[in-house]
Design brief:
The protein is of the alpha+beta class. It folds into five domains: 3-146, no CATH class; 171-331, Sulfite Reductase Hemoprotein, domain 1 (2-Layer Sandwich); 349-426, Alpha-Beta Plaits, CATH 3.30.70; 436-608, Sulfite Reductase Hemoprotein, domain 1, CATH 3.30.413.10; 611-747, Four Helix Bundle (Hemerythrin (Met), subunit A) (Up-down Bundle), CATH 1.20.120. The chain contains 23 helices and 24 strands.
């Protein structure tokens, strides 16, 4: 079908307002090409339509087993883009709660085939992403999606992002009630709302049907809603525990309780009031501090709540606050088939392994939820169409993408489980291991993300291969998550074993590393965050995983969790288990250390950002930075021992050591007085913008300045000491980056 023909076909199917928005965006593209729209304005416009720029990684994508050379329907790009308009980008497709129908999935598969690299990627926010898409094609993609009820509006940019929810809501055994209609209605209520158009940064919302399980991960969201009930005058009333100000990123922060019980009819006006306070008082100029978590921390939760309730009192009544409550059944799913029992065995070993890890009984007897394990979150158009066909035969449109980058079928009649697995196996998606150690979560990393430092996908793929063998039961239940940069899209802070991509300069060359993060907790909606133990060369990370899991399996006490094991054994001993892995041999001895997983090219961070060269960096700088890393580790140990003030003092000293290591290069006579160190560091590194992180600007330098101002005059709680330790680690990593960028001997 020609473009003009299908465009006419779609005209009668697309919502009028959605169609108008797409037309406007198409016009903006044309005006930008003629330089009649400022790039700054156009960039935000395309982001709010779900169109991202992406890293152009030599036409390659790493799947953990091989490096895939990509071809594109729009032409051969293997030689690289010739102009900005030739450069491929990423299209994010917004799926509220991860919900998708067979028809919608088929359309996305068609678009992946026609416009992208023929891979559909499930994200950690229940979205679908298509990579290597040309911007001039995006209006056509948007129209075809809109025709089946999908909008990409506000999938990116300074907006309310995709609203996520536990994929088991409505069928879970532990939930208070099904939150689906509330999440669905909130998506439409906030989409394009006037009060959410003036944010300084993005705003993420999550719903959970219960408090104890990890599915909703409310704790690290800007706004989180946990279903709750109360009995009032003998009547059970629905409502929500509402949390605000959570977030991961460079310094993670726990969400704080805003309302212990918000009645269902007050949820939307309360949310609207929160958004208005954020839009009015949130940071606008310094983007690194523009998330709502910084505003909540600055004001304190009580003052933030006072301002929110004050704003709520000013709101004009809106019928959309409660209209949806008259039809909560709008999101209700009905089974395609009657309940049944699993046929008597024996069954194949493959089916039994899959059933053990990928099948969960629903609270509705005779039905189960079946998880499709998607390695690295990827599947092909052919696999997607087969999934749509399977759904039509067994479950109808009861499918959802998950935050673990997998796919689930809901309402599978138990008698169909054997046949369903056989059909999944036939398309290469019958693997067991969902929600197990080998089911590694990863952000795109250096494959396609402009901010990627290390190859999180490449590492995740390697770990999947190595962990595919049978693991001890305790180890098998652990979770591994990988992020390629400080933005934490892989959610590494809440994993048992988390990995954060960083770079180190070794022997006058760059070497990919990952910070090891231990002690995170998925339970209780992502209840607590781990701390980094130090950087490990990327090529030794699998060895670190092997040692740590072996130690856990052999030394755990009873049903001790990995988090509890780490706390009991102590970070000193955990670090000692892997300390020797930090050594990097000379390039001539083993060049493999100097490339990343899945990428044979010599490692570089040149694609991230271009720093200014300010002269030669000599060896004592690296020595000083290593000393500062030791100080950070000692601060972590003191924190574990409950010595909050001592931990904070060590964290401050770590930053001083790193700052002195850099500043002494500019002033050989630099002493050890903190005031002098801070002054010289500010003059020679901050004011000259040499200490300028490609993602955060001068943000990390501010951590030192704040700690210096407060030194000796503040008693620290566990939370404030924890944050200072996190900030010290980030400052030290930024010092490494600055040292690496200005080294004239480095490529």
């Amino acid at each position: 079908m020609s473009e003009s023909t299908w465009k006419r076909v779609l005209e009668g199917k697309i919502r009028e307002d959605w169609g108008r928005e797409i037309d406007v965006f198409e016009t903006q593209i044309e005006l930008r090409k003629k330089s009649k729209v400022e790039e700054k304005l156009f960039a935000e416009a395309r982001l709010r339509r779900g169109v991202y720029g992406q890293r152009y990684d030599n036409g390659q994508r790493h799947d953990g087993e091989k490096t895939q050379t990509l071809t594109f329907p729009t032409g051969d790009l293997t030689k690289g883009p010739s102009t900005a308009w030739d450069a491929p980008g990423m299209m994010r497709i917004k799926l509220p709660m991860g919900r998708v129908s067979s028809q919608q999935l088929e359309v996305m598969c068609e678009l992946a085939e026609e416009y992208s690299d023929q891979i559909l990627h499930v994200t950690t926010r229940q979205d679908i992403q298509l990579h290597f898409v040309h911007i001039e094609d995006t209006p056509n993609l948007m129209r075809r999606l809109a025709a089946v009820g999908i909008t990409t509006r506000e999938a990116c940019g300074n907006s309310v992002r995709n609203i996520t929810a536990c994929p088991l809501v409505g069928v879970c055994n532990d939930e208070s009630f099904d939150v689906s209609p509330y999440a669905n209605a909130m998506m439409f209520f906030l989409l394009g709302h006037d009060d959410v158009q003036s944010f300084g940064r993005k705003f993420k919302i999550a719903f959970s049907g219960c408090k104890t399980n990890p599915c909703g991960l409310v704790n690290f969201h800007d706004l989180g809603c946990i279903a709750a009930t109360r009995t009032v005058n003998g009547e059970v009333k629905r409502g929500f525990e509402v949390y605000v100000g959570g977030g991961l990123g460079s310094v993670p922060q726990n969400a704080q309780l805003l309302e212990e019980f918000c009645p269902e009819e007050e949820l939307f006006p309360l949310t609207q009031a929160v958004c208005r306070v954020f839009a009015r008082l949130g940071e606008k100029d310094n983007r690194s501090r523009a998330r709502i978590k910084f505003l909540v921390k600055k004001l304190g939760i009580e003052e933030f709540k006072r301002l929110t309730l004050e704003e709520r009192a000013k709101l004009r009544p809106d019928e959309r606050w409660t209209n949806f409550l008259d039809n909560l059944a709008i999101t209700e799913e009905k089974p395609l088939k009657p309940p049944s029992k699993l046929p008597a065995g024996p069954h194949s070993a493959e089916f039994e392994a899959w059933r053990r890890t990928n099948v969960q009984p629903q609270r509705q007897e005779g039905y189960s939820v079946a998880t499709v394990t998607m390695p690295l979150g990827d599947f092909t158009p052919d696999q997607g169409r087969a999934i749509a066909d399977i759904a039509r035969r067994y479950t109808g449109d009861s499918m959802r993408a998950t935050v673990d980058q997998n796919w689930i079928f809901r309402w599978v009649s138990d008698g169909d489980l054997v046949k369903l697995h056989a059909e999944l196996a036939a398309i290469g998606l019958g693997e067991p291991g969902s929600d197990r150690i080998g089911d590694v979560t990863s952000c795109p990393g250096t494959d396609t993300c402009k901010l990627g430092i290390s190859s999180s996908r490449g590492l995740a793929g390697e770990l999947r291969k190595r962990l595919a063998v049978e693991q001890p039961a305790a180890v098998d239940k652990l979770h591994i998550k990988c992020s390629g940069c400080f933005n934490s899209c892989g959610q590494h802070h809440v994993a048992d074993l988390g990995f954060l991509g960083v770079s180190r300069a070794v022997n006058n060359r760059r070497v990919p590393h990952f910070q090891l993060v231990v002690g995170g907790q998925l339970q209780n909606n992502g209840g607590s965050y781990g701390l980094a133990l130090g950087a490990i060369p990327s090529k030794r990370v699998p060895d670190a995983v092997s040692r740590l899991t072996k130690a856990y399996n052999e030394r755990r006490q009873g049903e001790e969790t990995f988090k509890a094991f780490v706390e009991r054994v102590g970070k000193k001993e955990i670090k000692a288990l892997i300390e020797d892995l930090s050594h990097v041999p000379p390039y001539e001895q083993d060049p493999s250390y100097y490339s990343d997983w899945g990428d044979p090219r010599e490692y570089t961070i040149g694609d991230i950002g271009v720093g200014e060269c300010a002269g030669e960096v000599v060896s004592f700088v690296q020595f000083g930075l290593q000393k500062s890393e030791l100080e950070v580790f000692e601060a972590q140990v003191l924190l574990d021992e409950g010595k909050n003030d001592d931990a904070a003092t060590r964290a401050y000293r770590a930053m001083l050591e790193a700052a002195r290591a850099l500043a002494k290069e500019k002033n050989a006579n630099l002493g050890e007085e903190p005031e002098e160190i801070v002054r010289e560091f500010k003059q020679h590194w901050v004011e000259t913008k040499l200490f300028w992180d490609p993602f955060a600007g001068a943000k990390f330098a501010q951590y030192l300045f704040k700690a210096h101002e407060e030194a000796g005059g503040k008693t620290h709680s566990k939370e404030s000491a924890h944050q200072l330790v996190e900030e010290a680690q980030l400052f030290v990593d930024a010092a490494h980056q600055a040292h690496t960028r200005i080294g004239t001997a480095l490529p």
